Amino acid sequence: MSNLFDLLVAGLATGAIYALVAVGFTLLWQTSQTINFAQGEFVMLPAFLMLAAMQVGAPFWLAIILGILLSMILLGLAFKLLLVDPMMRHGVLPLAIATMALAIGIKEAVKQFFSAEASPFPSIVPTGEVAILGHAVSLQSIGVLVVAILAVLGLTTLLNRTSLGHQMQAAAQNPTVARIIGVPVERMILLTFLINAFLVALASLLITPIYLAKFSSGEVLGQAAFIAAIVGGFNQVRGAIAGGLLIGVLDNLAAAYVSTQYRAAVPMMFLIAVILFRPQGLLGRAEERTV
Amino acid sequence: MKSTLVVGALLTVMTATGAFGQAIKLANVAELSGGGATVGTNWKNGIDLAIEEINAKGGVLGRKLEVSHADSQSNPGVARAQVQKALDAEPYVLLGPGYSGSVKVTAPLAAEAGIAQIMGGEAAELTQAGNKFLFRTSFGQQSSMPKVAKYIHDEMKAKTVAVVWVNNDFGRGGRDVIVKELDRLGSKVVADLSTEAGQADFAADVGKIKAANPDAVFVYLNEEESARILKELKRQGVTAPLMGETTLIGQKVIELAGDAANGARGHVGLTTDAPVDLVKAFREKFSKKYNYVPDHNGLKGYLAVYMVKATTEKMGKVDPKKFADTLHGLTIKAADEPGILMDVTFSDTGDIDRQSFLVEVVEGKQVVKQVLPKVK
């Protein structure tokens, strides 16, 4: 039983990171119909930006700030202006394929400028453990969960409780009407791109100490987040959160109780089941758009 | 008049070479460029250093050693072509390559030519194909794993062991030997965990180790995965002692895993940090000549040449046909041949038995804690 508890905690911690990435995924889809297949690489890159900042002498805290800012410029602003905007008018599919190309480009660039080998990455949470319900739980897992939950809470508050959030909702649900009533739709879309960039940078900061900084580490993450978003409901932020946590736990339980070889297959099979029996996702609603 | 002069000059040259006796020709094919450049360059420098020493002391049976170096570009295909070319020149012994993959494709060529090949590869399968001409310079898994098992059972006093391995040829090869050996010694394998190459998340695997609560954990993964699991083991607070091979306690792993690597132990076949006087002397000579500290591949190249010397002196003649037969089953003692650095015995399959070292990571540094004796 203690094993199950440990697995649940570890799964929730990983799942919380998946959730952050999946939320960004759904945000982009909601506001701009962008299916970002480079989302995994978006998580991989900020860690390297932070490492680069540290290499030129910045302390860790400054490197984190610089990394997040740079991510928002590169993965938010530049991504939207240079790739999404020009490709958008050609439809969803060409844009999706363009993001696949971007994924390859980012991976190769990191390999070129850093190296194909993994690099260590410092953790923002100290190692150690605390006792919860008689179980030793690592501070790192708790730290990851807390940061991810805070980020998600902050995001939902922004979306549901503020005027800005309501404008974003409006821009996502019906851009034409939103425009008529005076919502700056373009700016709202840009804002979701910046939020996505912030979320992936945060995810990068949390996951890289565990996975190590490596050019290929985005592959697994991007896939997991994609599955999480679909399973949870592609058109719901809360769906993405639930999907992320579920996939994280499922992945860990599969690795423990099925086999390591099939751990990647179990979430996939779950995905197929969801698509067959509940295509709108567990928490999604058919034919509706909201952030 | 002119032609007489030329003939005279030729005659002089011929007599001059004759005075040294005909040189013994060795051929080296190694990873001098590409991904394995560090491996091949160390190996080559080790060879050159040994030949220089031997020739300075009058050569082997009064004849000088000569070596030709060819570059495999760390590519098995190129290695095969280069070995074929080298064999066409009928060398006494073939040295290299260092990569197991390159050895695998070149070994049949040397065997067909009937020329002994002394190489750097460590994959278990290399010496299991019945090749009568292939010799190792370092441990294969079938030699190192029994030592590791013995250490886990005798020194760590582990009655229960968790074995974590990477699901590829390398990992499966090591896992099969250690599980068998642990079983033979009476240590129970309570968790037998296969992991995937490139795996990022080890939470579930470590969860299983924790649940099995073993006395010791044997970790047999590649460097990056070793670092990840070390971190996860620390994260989940697993306190059982960790044992592995060179891949668990290598410099790269220490760099990646940081604090989490401290306390991990590993079995190392050859290291220039070995507390052996002859190895220390080698390290000093090598560093003086090349201005850097060699890794174990430098040692391997050096040993390969001294294997040639000792075997030839044992035969009392330079006979490429009998070379392999003589080296099989041969024990070379460092007291008789200091260049071999440590006593070594070659099996009928070309595997070696030699003392080795138990290294522990202490505050981010490798420290040799113990010398593990020869198995036989």
Automatic annotation (TrEMBL), chain A:
Coiled-coil annotated residue ranges, if any: none
Localization of this protein: Cell membrane
Keywords: Amino-acid transport, Cell membrane, Membrane, Transmembrane, Transmembrane helix, Transport
Chain ranges passing through the membrane: 6-28, 60-79, 91-110, 130-159, 189-212, 224-250, 262-281
Pfam families assigned: BPD_transp_2
CDD domains in UniProt: TM_PBP1_LivH_like (cd06582)
Keyword presence, NADP: no
PANTHER family named in the record: ABC TRANSPORTER PERMEASE PROTEIN, BRANCHED-CHAIN AMINO ACID TRANSPORT SYSTEM PERMEASE PROTEIN LIVH
Family membership noted in the UniProt record: Belongs to the binding-protein-dependent transport system permease family. LivHM subfamily.
Protein name per UniProt: Branched-chain amino acid ABC transporter permease
Automatic annotation (TrEMBL), chain B:
Domain of life per record: Bacteria
Keywords: Amino-acid transport, Signal, Transport
Domain Leucine-binding protein, chain residue ranges per copy: 24-364
Cross-referenced SUPFAM superfamilies: Periplasmic binding protein-like I
Pfam families, per the entry: Peripla_BP_6 (PF13458)
Alphabetical list of InterPro entries matching this protein: BCAA_transport (IPR051010), Leu-bd (IPR028081), Leu_Ile_Val-bd (IPR000709), Peripla_BP_I (IPR028082)
Transmembrane parts of this sequence: none
Signal peptide: 1-18
PANTHER family: LEUCINE-SPECIFIC-BINDING PROTEIN, PERIPLASMIC BINDING PROTEIN OF ABC TRANSPORTER FOR NATURAL AMINO ACIDS
Family: Belongs to the leucine-binding protein family.
Record's protein name: ABC transporter substrate-binding protein
Organism field: Bradyrhizobium agreste
Lineage: Bacteria, Pseudomonadati, Pseudomonadota, Alphaproteobacteria, Hyphomicrobiales
